[in-house]
Amino acid sequence: MALSTEFKVGLFVLITGGIVVGGGIWSVDGVFQGASVYTLSLSVPSADGLYLGTPIKLAGVPIGSVDSTVVQGDRAELVLKIKDEYKLPVNSFAQIRSSGIIGDRYIGIDLGDDARLFKDGDRIELKNEPADFEKITRQVDSITEDLQAITKVMRTMAERDENRENVEATLGNVEALSAELRLMAEQNRHDISAIVDSIRRLSSTLEVFAKDTQGDVGDEMDKLKDATDNLNSTVDDIKSITGKIDRGEGTIGALVNDKATIDLLNDTISNVNDVVEGFSGMHSEVYYTGRYYFGSKPNNDEVFFFGNPLAGSASNTIGIRLKPQEDFWYNFEINDTPLGTVTYTEHFFPESGQVYQEYIREPNYRMTFMMNKRWFNLGLRLGVKESGGGLGASYWLFKDRLEFQADIFDFDLGSYPAVESSGIPNVRVLARFQPIDHVYVEAGMEQVILGAKYGYATGFVGAGFSFNDDDIKLLFATLPLNF
């Protein structure tokens, strides 16, 4: 006996409801039945880069994750969920660390040696607060301004008339001292002659000695000459550089003499810090979803002469999710939907004044780019959905283990066939359940509005998996380095 359409739709709804209820029972509080954990609280100056699920590592091994974040005054209060098998001494400390320059942040544990162990609900202290790059930048700015002030004072002193007079007086004193030394030399000429004679005899002795060591001394003198030449060249370079700096030439000269350049450099450093901070907090995830479609046959055979356009077919989706913030992310997808793409060509007949549109459906890939924003358990998205405009919503339950999705897209030509579905967007609803980390199953309905209009239903079941930055880093770490 043939089953009616109403019976089949009702049966499918019962199956989907069973999956949702089973998922809720399986993932209570986001932890498997029988899992044993305890919690610790941690106060940090800022939770930037930390999110629900941020790993907690001991010696590089994940031992738990961040369970919640709240604001207390001007600091963030974190609740850490630790696996019960890892007992931590009470003098252990927590540190906020990063996996490389642009890697994700995580909470590392410095293990203590106390015999006493943390209990559920205890507080663990933060060992070293993260560096404040803006404070360091302000200190560099202050040092630069001090150097500029010193240079300005030295230039001002050199340009004063009284300072030039002091220099001239100093030169006069040097000339007077030279005259006194000349007079002293004349008065002690005989003593000086005796000294010169002694030096001459000493020189003769040294000459004999020099002949014996002439080869070695010659080599050493050549080396000394080379060193002197290098030193002279270095002094000339230093003179050239200091002259350019004093005249305000080059980057350093501009820094010393032009405050506007210093301000511009400070702005550039600040922008670079913002970019680096943005990348360090970027979180990415790659995922794959496969679906199999089934459904009843439409009532209108003239329009649906091929039958249900999706029943008995399958699709594959590969995507990447980029999350600059925990509550905001981008989705990029490529999908080989069985509907392919629908295009049309317009033909005009001048003789009769008629217009004829020829619709063509051919296998092709569809692209998706959507922006997502989340508020608590509700998320909204907007952008390009399967090569057409689209928008959608999600609602999460049980620590994000269970997700309900609803999307409406392809407003132009509609789902299929193009002539009858033009102006009727494709509506897709589904429930997705994640029994274990990185693996999920789903069930839903496709072409809801079009199916309701022509008396047929199309459903699908699917499964998929995902992996994030830490999984990618672990994969690259295990690859051989020698090829």
Question: How would you describe what is shown here?
Answer:
The longest helix has 33 residues, at 214-246. The protein has helices spanning 5-26, 133-159, 161-187, 189-212, 214-246, 250-257, 259-280, 418-421, 448-454, 469-478; strands at 37-44, 55-58, 61-72, 75-83, 93-98, 105-110, 125-126, 283-295, 314-325, 328-335, 341-349, 354-362, 366-375, 378-385, 388-397, 402-409, 426-436, 439-446, 458-468. The protein is α+β, with helices and mostly antiparallel strands and 483 residues long. A hairpin with a 2-residue loop joins β14 and β15 (388-397). The protein is built from ten helices and 19 strands. Among the domains are: 5-11 and 282-478, Porin, CATH 2.40.160; 37-126, SH3 type barrels. Mean pLDDT is 79; it is low at 24-33. The strands form three sheets. Strands 8-9-10-13-14-15-16-17-18-19 form a ten-stranded antiparallel barrel, surrounded by four helices.
Strand order of the largest sheet: 8-9-10-13-14-15-16-17-18-19
* Main sheet overview: 10 strands, antiparallel, barrel
Shape: elongated
Total helices: the number is 10
Distance between the termini: 65 Å
CATH class of the domain at 5-11 and 282-478: Mainly Beta
Please give the number of β-strands. Answer: 19
Radius of gyration: 40 Å
